[in-house]
Amino acid sequence: MPTIPSNAPGVPLSPFDDRDGWIWWNGRFVPWREARPHVLTHGLHYASAVFEGERAYAGHIFRLRDHTNRLIESARILGFSLPWDAATIDAACIETLARNGLTEGYLRPIAWRGSEEMGVAARATRPNLAIAAWEWPSYFAPEVRMRGIRLAMAPWRRPAPETAPTAAKATGLYMIGTMSKHAAMDAGFDDALMLDWKGDVAEATGANVFFVFDGALHTPTPVGFLDGITRRSVMALARHRQIRVVERTIAETEIARAGEVFLAGTAAEVTPVREIAGHGEFAPGQVTEALLRDYAALVRMPPESVARRVA
To answer: What is the span of the domain harbouring residue 66?
Structure first.
């Protein structure tokens, strides 16, 4: 049976629309249950929305400004500007965490076009921004994560940059991730590995992928999918350990010769992979274990120390 993570998307301990707490909404806090956009919101009908996934550790939101900058840039790519600057959004994230009594947790800022206009054209819509925070210990069940997860091959591919705004963290781009993950779980796997439009390795449904070949760390060049913030953090940690890091096109046929495989993302953190369907089994080795430990230590450093370490 597929692993159901605690409080995972789609299988919450309680519905996400029926909780105690506060959500930052366009500059003010509203009770959690009252944070409801109208059904004729443009973002719902046309996926004109962008978001971030952030984690807080020991009271600090990991690489907060990097996430905020990406949110603003994602909105710009989709053609709308947020009327809040990065400092205001950062402060709202920090206050949302505190207002909900959390020092460890997950944050979800989301920006979308409103309900002032309906149709493909959306120039009359106003942008909205909401920020929620909740406790979310692990994307995968801890006992599964530590022994490694199993990946199916996704039935969908990441699109070419000419066909979708792939440099944005846009909601519509995750539709094929959801479909691919559901197919994997139905087949008894934990997640899926996606190829790009050319048939080369891209990423998992919500995290970047790394392979260890002959002691060096290899990861696909981020074309057609996001250059993740956790991805860049892991690469910096590897270089700090004098591990050679290679960004390149990785063919599907190369997977089988990898010595180690792991995923990296805000939700997944650093998660070993023990099987990729049709391409073999793997065991967490020295590189994966070292980077898992290093990342776990990095996220609990003060923000100024993080900035120095990943520079």
So the answer is: 22-134
